[in-house]
Specification:
Number of helices: 10
Shape: globular
Strand order of the largest sheet: 4-3-2-5-6-13-12
Number of strands: 13
Bound molecules: N,N-dimethyl-L-histidine
Structural class: alpha/beta
Largest sheet: 7 strands, mixed
Helix content: 25-40%
Distance between the termini: 51 Å
Mean pLDDT: 95
Order of helices and strands: HEHHEHEHEHEHEHHEEEEEHEE
Radius of gyration: 21 Å
């Protein structure tokens, strides 16, 4: 077996997989769940009754659409930039309201996947043909940087779905700092944060009985099998979820139910698992006002307003620099 420095990796996925599975404790990055199959499974997760995040944020947007749209508005027009737009189901609530009020705006969804952007553009053409859509294919920050260079109109940056929750606090501060750097004084950041709540409700959201979240988590192993020629036996791993009510961190693991050795041919790697050894795969951070305030302070942002659902399950905050 070669050591890490002797291998030329074909991709960042290959390199990160090598690093994560050669470490102790073992880990994999959740961003790699999202290939074509992972995207489909995430769509199914968002439709599950246990995954309350989608309906809570949808309710907040529906209940407060007029006030939110008013806060976005600017006499010279607005660029609505969404980082990680997905199917745009929730954003469409705001787009509809902006159209209704006849505000001057254009919608710039940003995504790494051209396929996701094409689907979104098609559905907008059908459902809201009056919206001016300018899809931006690329990474979030390179695109934001580019948009702030040529752009003098007010920018409203949208990050929905508590996507920030998949980052550690340190990564989240960096993420917010990068956005802050791209913002001018009149720009706004509108962002969703899932809130701390009954720990059982959180555990159920990430450990549904139908097994969709387990399949989503195991898609990491399937993807390694498919793309890196490995022989993971998916049935030999158990999806396991924990939630720490003190830190607000939900963690996903894959736990090896037997002592086993997995071969990853394209990495020339043999990975040994002890019985009950774990791979940490994802964090889904839950927040309260103190944590969000701390993140804002550290990123040089100010909280201007917030909106919550009736049960206080979820909050959307408006930040300025
Ligand atoms: C995308 N992200 C905010 C989801 C979450 O809630 O952490 C991903 C997810 N993982 C399991 N279920 C949903």
């Amino acid at each position: 077996m070669k050591n890490e420095s002797q291998i030329t990796f074909q991709s960042a996925f290959a390199e990160d997989t090598y690093k994560g599975l050669s470490s102790y404790p073992k880990f994999l990055y959740s961003k790699y769940i999202y290939d074509e199959k992972g995207d489909k499974l995430f769509q199914q997760i968002m439709d599950m009754p246990e995954y309350y995040l989608t309906s809570c944020e949808f309710d907040i947007l529906e209940m407060n659409a007029p006030e939110i749209a008013d806060s976005f508005q600017h006499p010279e027009g607005v660029d609505l930039i969404e980082l990680g737009a997905g199917d745009g189901k929730k954003t469409k609530v705001l787009l509809k309201e902006l159209l209704k009020k006849e505000y001057d705006f254009q919608y710039l969804p940003v995504d790494i996947s051209q396929h996701a952007l094409d689907d979104l553009q098609q559905s907008l053409k059908k459902e809201l043909p009056a919206v001016k859509v300018k899809p931006q294919q690329g990474t979030y920050f390179k695109t934001l940087e580019k948009l702030s260079e040529y752009n003098s109109r007010k920018k409203v940056i949208l990050v929905l779905g508590s996507n920030i929750g998949n980052l550690s606090h340190k990564e989240a501060v960096n993420f917010l700092k990068n956005i802050q750097t791209a913002m001018s004084k009149e720009d706004m950041l509108f962002m969703g944060f899932d809130q701390k709540k009954d720990p059982q409700v959180i555990l159920n959201a990430y450990n549904d009985e139908s097994g969709i979240t387990a399949a989503f988590n195991k898609n990491l192993l399937e993807r390694i099998n498919r793309e890196l020629e490995a022989n993971f036996d998916l049935d030999a791993f158990r999806h396991w979820e924990t939630y720490d009510p003190e830190t607000g961190t939900a963690k996903s693991f894959l736990v090896s139910e037997t002592a086993q050795t997995v071969r990853i041919k394209s990495l020339e790697l043999e990975v040994k698992f002890d019985k009950w050894e774990s791979i940490h795969t994802e964090i889904s951070q839950k927040y309260d006002d103190h944590i969000v305030q701390w993140l804002a302070d550290n990123a040089g942002l100010v909280i201007e307003n917030d909106f919550h659902d009736v049960a206080n399950c979820y909050k959307n905050y408006i930040f300025r620099r």
